[in-house]
Write a structure and sequence with these properties.
Length: about 200
């Protein structure tokens, strides 16, 4: 199936906040309340402030349906030198500053801050998680074609199913952090994983 990708900020300009908020309020993700809460309560504000940009994914059919979304932000992250393979250390070193004192790489790279599928029971179609992740990664690569860079990272709950999901798309763990107090989720620890784009 084909999908249509729409920038939330452009939709805000076209349809106005009330109509857009009505669309976003129909997004349901019972498996992850943080994903649902973000799209319904924070996405518009974050986009307006350019803190994070959200892209809505619609099914490409006669009556397009909102099947998922992802949010991208540019972040600064610290990666312990021993957390990566020698090959990945060499690749990441091209896009980072190495802190010799603490044996770590300091990297500015895109974060896929949110990635969520819409589980609203009224939908006639859905998007596989791997397809949604692939669309998000392509959007990152488009940006990096303009500004440079070859890596992206995610932070997810410490959950074997999520770890396997991202690992299947060549993400590798490089660290973890404690969840911020304003983040809603069951896991107090977030696993940090990155993907290096070879092309």
């Amino acid at each position: 199936m084909d999908y249509i990708e729409l920038n939330l900020l452009e939709m805000l300009d076209t349809y106005g906040e009330d109509k857009l908020q009505a669309v976003l309020s129909c997004f349901i993700c019972p498996q992850n309340t943080d994903v649902e809460n973000f799209i319904q309560s924070k996405a518009i504000t974050f986009a307006r402030q350019r803190l994070a940009m959200t892209y809505l994914i619609y099914s490409a059919m006669d009556n397009p349906e909102l099947v998922g979304y992802f949010t991208l932000a540019n972040k600064f992250v610290s990666i312990d030198g021993n957390a990566l393979s020698k090959t990945l250390q060499k690749r990441i070193s091209k896009f980072s500053q190495y802190d010799k004192e603490f044996d770590r790489f300091l990297v500015s790279m895109p974060l896929i801050a949110q990635l969520g599928r819409n589980f609203n029971p009224s939908l006639l179609t859905s998007i596989p998680g791997q397809d949604l992740l692939a669309i998000a990664c392509r959007k990152v690569q488009e940006a990096q074609f303009i500004i440079g860079g070859k890596a992206v990272y995610i932070e997810c709950a410490s959950n074997p199913k999520l770890f396997d999901f991202y690992s299947a798309s060549q993400f590798v763990q490089f660290g973890q952090r404690e969840r911020d107090t304003d983040e809603i989720e069951e896991s107090p620890i977030l696993v940090q994983m990155l993907k290096y784009f070879r092309d």
